[in-house]
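Forwarding these from the shared drive since the link keeps breaking.
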Amino acid sequence: MYASLRPLLFSLDAERAHDLTLAGLGAVHRLGLSSMLATPPQPLPTEAFGLRFANPVGLAAGLDKNGDHIDALFALGFGFVEIGTVTPRAQDGNPRPRMFRLPRHRAVINRLGFNNRGVDALVANVERARRPGVLGINIGKNKDTPNESAADDYLFCLERVYPLADYITVNISSPNTAGLRELQEEQALRRLIGTLREAQERLAAQHGKRVPVLVKVAPDLNDDDIEAAARVLSDLHVDGVIATNTTISRISVQDDPRAGEAGGLSGEPVMNKSTTVLRMLRTRLPGSIPLVGVGGILSGADAVKKMAAGASLVQVYSGLVYRGPPLIGDCVDAIRRRREAPSRGNLPSL
């Protein structure tokens, strides 16, 4: 069904198509017709950071910033759904137009800028949802909050979403909020994550449950940055790391007329870059810290590459723009085949 709708959606402004798609998805779900969009995959149970997932393929943050469509998204077959990024106060984000497709490269550039209705609106939506699977909530800071006070914004969101989230992601890697990525610098990262880890333990005692806190990093970190980030995240015993967010690099799309648009590039061009960061983190972090691979997944084979690089789970977003909901089942099936394949040592001799 998505294949027939894609030409219409691609004739519209990218953000308008995004909003229309979500509205349509909600309507289809309310009518009980989600199976028309995709056949949910058979379960492929997966465990990571103390949680059990129906399958290892999830939705990355950014598609449903306010949690308006949680149940409709789960109905497509995701093993987990991550909503947000949400900030303490509502904000409009950057001026439009701020989302662009690069069809020849199967890519998207966005500079949305954490547009959302604020954490209280998201909490209300989560409270109304049935949420039949693992729900992650991605938190950030308001654009007018200086980095010196960023911890206050993250703490505010952490405390508000903690009772409702299955896991929480700290987004310090979006390129669309000025100065945000500076929080990935070693000392700034240690201060922020250290503060949030202390709050996490306090909230665990307060609510009688421990909600995992993950950190989402950028694909544009150099080798020294990755070494430093791994050192901090390991020292502070974070529950998991998501690798990666969008890239500011345009090397792989420099021939595209949209390449000059500011913002984060996602989709196929970020696949190799994000997978390299994923692989480097896996070799530098203890095995007790699971990784989530995201960036450039447009096929089951791409999902398998992320798993081979060290991911326990994967997430998709821009791939849905080009492949639609069938991408979910494609990824689950490919990962299933990888799991079921005999190891090389067990292959019959010829």
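-- next protein --
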Amino acid sequence: MPISPISLLDLTTLNATDDPARVEALCHRAIAPAAGWPSTAAVCVFPTEVPVARRVLPAGGPVRLASVAGAFPHGHAPMAVRLAEVRWCVEAGADEIDMVVRRDKVLAGDEAFLHDEVAAHVDAADGRLVKVILETGELEDATTIAWASDVAIAAGAHFLKTSTGKSAPTTLAHGRVMLERIAAHLRAGGAPVGFKPAGGIRTPADATAWMDLVEAVLGPDAVAPDRLRLGASSLLDALLAEGPATP
């Protein structure tokens, strides 16, 4: 039976006007979007809203709690500050961390920095799932995206994520490059690495296109919440408006 895109959704709010009431409402909606519909995979919020979301989302419940951390969305802070933010989110109850890499270092080809940056964030997350945002719209070409994907995977990334949603939109072409590097890693005997497209995913057709791409490159088993997330804020409304849930 086809999986609902809602089950893959990281329901997200990353706005300057976010407050506890908005975050609490989002969490309740993630748990029960509407009668007959599944919960979303996760809620993703700013670090300051993690304690708020944790009060609504039960630990071990159907909806995981994710937070952007590590000087989102640019990464331009001292490494000690970035890692302290990750540890703070974990202590506050985050299940998952969405970190962003320094694109200036990626564009400079600084492999050591990129590897150590990702590895340090994974270590600071203390066993929590870490999604590494490459911000593909700011990288120059497919070769750079593929290289950055390989380095992030080697450094321990649990998921590769396309975008912060704060710059150029994600494209299917960029996503395919990342998925092909995940596939190469699997063929070499590596552990599964998840994938999260984000930015510009607003319609059911957008969600279907990403799900179809993941299935084409990684197979049907990869179209599941432990392997695929869809990062979006308005997609849920569009999915609910489209019609009844899959029986």
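The chain has one domain: 5-242. The mean pLDDT is 95.

- D.
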